[in-house]
Design a protein that fits this description.
Blueprint lengths: L1 H14 L18 H15 L7 E6 L6 E8 L5 E9 L20 E10 L9 H13 L14 H12 L8 E3 L1 H7 L1 E9 L6 H19 L9
Amino acid sequence: MATCATAWLDHLDRCLPKVRADTVWNDLTDGEDFVIAMRARMSWVYGQLDPPPHVRHDLVSSAAGTSWVARIFTDARAPGYQVIAEMEENLTVREFPKQAGPGQRQPRGPSIRVCLLQQGVSTSAGFDWDYLLAMWPLLQRAPLDWVTHPAQPKAAHDRAGHQRMVAGGAPPYFGAGFGEAQAKISHSCMFGARAQLPATITLGDLAATMHALTQLILQLAAVEPPHRSP
């Protein structure tokens, strides 16, 4: 048993990428396994997270099941809602190459979404866009450069909610996320803002960015949902 364990540890030490705080996100070794390299980086960042009480964190597969996603989240004031920040390599899963190196697709850099997430639903039709709008002032002041491509919800009811929110003062890019299709698959939907970090960011700086987001998550979770008359 000891011999087998020693052999496995030696194998893992030789095969797994060596990553640390000064490792650059897109500094991949020519010919190494792209997916393993990305997972090693995400695992290292996740391992550095130590959120305060009431903020949870986990490491999950993306919806497509290849890349890994580091998440921090907490319950919002409204029942059935959470505030969540999640980080994932922005190169789409369908473009993930088998090997890294010249001529191959390279990492684009980590993408961070900060969203209001609704749980326990089979449709996004009931998502509270007014509640999301109430969180915009905090997100507007956050030290992140939000991607300004206009959000384009696919379902008609999501488009209507987004348009109503923009009419209420939110920028067109606020409201990006996952709506009706995701609700049918995972019984949750989420909308918010997205920031794109440089592919040359170090893992130490990335972990610090995620750690700083815990305070934003707590502030957003403290926002009261808009009052509705009976």
